[in-house]
Design goal:
With about 160 residues, the chain is of the alpha/beta class. About 50% of the residues lie in helices and about 15% in strands. The protein is globular and about 55 Å long. The chain binds NADP nicotinamide-adenine-dinucleotide phosphate.
């Protein structure tokens, strides 16, 4: 029997990430998923170990990602789909955001995505196949810029 494809989803303990995990499992795929809290993730998903692997991963730490990739490969034998979902927006006007706020946001939304791709791509290249879906974006920060402009215009007019 052909083994089902393997998905790896980041930021999966809630929201779109959790919904993606549940949907992929319901379609019969095997799923590895990352969270900052693997216990919560496991409780939220609540399915058998042979189809689901919860992983506690720090997206800013390449060693943590390498371990998660290795564990996924060992458990399921491949990684066919990577979904970079983890991310967040910081709300507020541009001048209310500190440099640290923005860098912290980019660490997850941008560099975290790149870290995951760097970790998973060697597996996909070796397999000769794979898909990467990037959901996280820098739009959180850009949104804040528009908010600032909109607020400024409202004040000026
Ligand atoms: N909802 C929207 O309208 C919208 C719009 C544009 C883009 N997006 C993007 O779509 C993705 C999913 O959104 P959502 O609405 O489902 O968001 P959500 O419910 O807040 O879930 C986001 C996930 O990202 C992870 N995450 C958040 N902050 C993190 C951090 N500092 N470090 C590591 N992981 C972190 C969390 O994973 P754990 O807690 O499991 O670690 C969480 O499960 C995000 O990347 C978001 O930026 C959403």
């Amino acid at each position: 029997m052909t083994q089902s494809k393997v998905w790896l989803v980041t930021g999966a303990s809630k929201g779109l990430g959790l919904a993606t995990v549940r949907h992929a499992l319901a379609l019969g795929f095997r799923v590895a998923a990352t969270s900052r809290d693997a216990v919560r993730l496991k409780a939220e998903v609540g399915v058998a170990d042979y189809v689901f692997l919860p992983l506690e991963v720090t997206l800013t730490d390449e060693a943590s990602i390498a371990l998660a990739v290795r564990q996924t490969k060992e458990r399921f034998g491949s990684i066919d789909v990577l979904v970079n979902n983890a991310g967040y927006a910081v709300l507020g006007a541009m001048e209310e955001m500190s440099d640290a706020d923005v860098r912290k946001n980019f660490d997850i939304n941008v560099f975290g995505v790149m870290n995951m791709m760097r970790g998973v791509l060697p597996v996909m290249r070796e397999q000769g196949r794979g898909h990467i879906i990037n959901i996280a974006s820098i739009s959180g920060s850009l949104g804040m810029a528009s908010t600032a402009i909109w607020r400024d215009r409202r004040t000026v007019n």
